[in-house]
Design goal:
Layout (H helix, E strand, L loop, with lengths): L7 H31 L5 E4 L5 E3 L1 E17 L2 E5 L4 E6 L6 E2 L4 E6 L1 H61 L5 H58 L2 E3 L4 E5 L7 E2 L4 E6 L4 E8 L11 E5 L4 E9 L7 E8 L12 E18 L9 E7 L5 E12 L3 E6 L6 E3 L11 E5 L1
Parallel strand pairs: 1-21
Antiparallel strand pairs: 2-20, 3-12, 3-16, 4-11, 5-7, 5-10, 6-9, 7-8, 9-11, 12-15, 13-14, 13-16, 14-15, 16-19, 17-18, 17-20, 18-19, 18-21
């Protein structure tokens, strides 16, 4: 029978080995963990040709704003109906050239025609009555003048008689009584002559007043006749200006009322641009600033002449007067692009405007290290903006290159590597 003999040294050796293996394993695990943490994270690679890169420069920056718009005539004439009527005929089609006296369409209204005839007859009657009154008053004035002439003759005769009696009395050849009679007769005729003169003056003033009143009535009838005649003439609708007939928004047989637009005529040789500028950019636009209008068939210089005070659908309409000859194909309602020069900034840092970012804001851009090809996110302070450029306030220096295209796809990365 065999018996196991206990060996304490053997147990201690096994325990010692287990402890050594455990320590070695723990040390290995620590080394592996340290190695893993010491590795740099993998950097996303991006094709250089797929991004838009800009470089910070220093110098003059021209601030501009841009908007779309249309060419519109400077002179547009809407022709409205002056009276009720019915469209009898349309003589000119839209698109035709017209002169001021060109008849575009004709209306009919029997009441207007009758009113014009009545006004004409009343004017003739008033003129005839005025002439009759004038003749009668002139006849009365002639009678007054004849009577005044007789009194004047008697007055002169009595005056001469009194002077003769005075000489005879002074020589003792005539009695005193005859001298007194002659002087009395002269005094009476003097008073009568003065009265007739005053009567003549009053008669002339009365005649002038009566004629003035009658003339006023004649002029009143003439004004009424001219109004009726103008209304009658307005039934034949004329262009009023030389230009192109653009619209005739009525049809034959249609009844119209005063104020309804019958036609629109425009001067195609005098155009202006109406440019719609974003309301956030329009605050810097001022009257007199220079502009450039692109018709896609040529560019025309211009000048801002009016800024609409109202905002419509997020834009402000700016009128630009065109300077110089219009390019071929320029016509009303043509779509155009307009660029307005706001100001020139001297000696500033600037770069091409990125895909996002508002004026006077801070945005994140990927700054490129030319040596390593890595681009890391950098906070950049923007200043004033233009159409294609933006002022740099801080975060970059002259010569720095940055990625300007949309980088939202790399929001989870602080750095990327450009390849290719």
């Amino acid at each position: 029978m065999t018996m196991d003999i206990a060996r304490p040294s053997r147990k201690k050796e096994i325990r010692r080995r287990r402890i050594l293996y455990g320590l070695a394993g723990a040390a290995g695990l620590i080394l592996i963990t340290f190695f893993v943490f010491s590795l740099e994270p993998a950097v996303r690679e991006v094709e250089r040709s797929s991004v838009w890169i800009g470089t910070v420069a220093r110098g003059e920056m021209l601030r501009k704003v841009r908007g779309s718009g249309t060419l519109v005539p400077e002179e547009i004439r809407w022709i409205a109906a002056e009276t009720n009527g019915q469209v009898e005929s349309i003589d000119v089609d839209p698109g035709a050239d017209v002169e001021p006296e060109t008849i575009i369409l004709e209306l009919s209204n029997p009441e207007v025609e009758q009113a014009a005839e009545d006004a004409k007859l009343k004017l003739r009657a008033a003129e005839a009555q005025y002439l009759d009154l004038k003749v009668r008053l002139e006849s009365q004035l002639l009678d007054q003048q004849a009577n005044l002439a007789r009194v004047r003759a008697d007055f002169e005769s009595a005056k001469l008689e009194a002077e003769a009696r005075q000489r005879l009395y002074a020589e003792g050849l005539a009695p005193e009584i005859e001298l007194k009679k002659a002087n009395l007769a002269a005094e009476q005729l003097t008073t009568r002559f003065e009265i007739e003169q005053q009567r003549m003056k009053k008669s002339a003033e009365s005649a002038d007043a009566q004629l003035a009143a009658e003339r006023a009535r004649v002029e009143q009838q003439r004004a009424l006749w001219e109004l009726r005649a103008r209304q009658l003439d307005s039934l034949r609708v004329r262009a009023g200006i030389a230009g192109v007939l653009q619209q005739v928004p009525v049809e034959e047989g249609q009844r119209v009322t005063p104020g309804i637009n019958l036609a629109r005529v425009a001067r195609p040789d005098k155009l202006k641009a109406e440019v719609r500028i974003n309301e956030t950019q329009a605050k810097d636009v001022q009257i007199g600033q220079t502009a450039e209008i692109d018709t896609r068939n040529g560019k025309i210089p211009g000048r801002v002449t009016r800024i609409d005070p109202a905002v419509q659908q997020g834009t402000v309409t700016v009128d630009v007067a065109l300077i110089g000859e219009l390019p071929k194909g320029a016509r009303p309602d043509l779509s155009v692009d307009g660029t307005i020069e706001l100001e020139r900034l001297e000696d500033v840092l600037y770069f091409q405007r990125p895909a996002y970012g508002q004026p006077d804001s801070t945005i994140g851009l990927f700054k490129i290290n030319s040596e390593t090809g890595r681009a890391c996110l950098t906070q950049v302070q923007l200043g004033r903006t233009s159409v294609n450029e933006v002022e740099l306030v801080g975060g970059l220096e002259q010569g720095d290159a940055v990625i300007l295209s949309d980088s939202s796809q790399w929001d989870d990365a602080n750095c990327i590597r450009l390849v290719g």
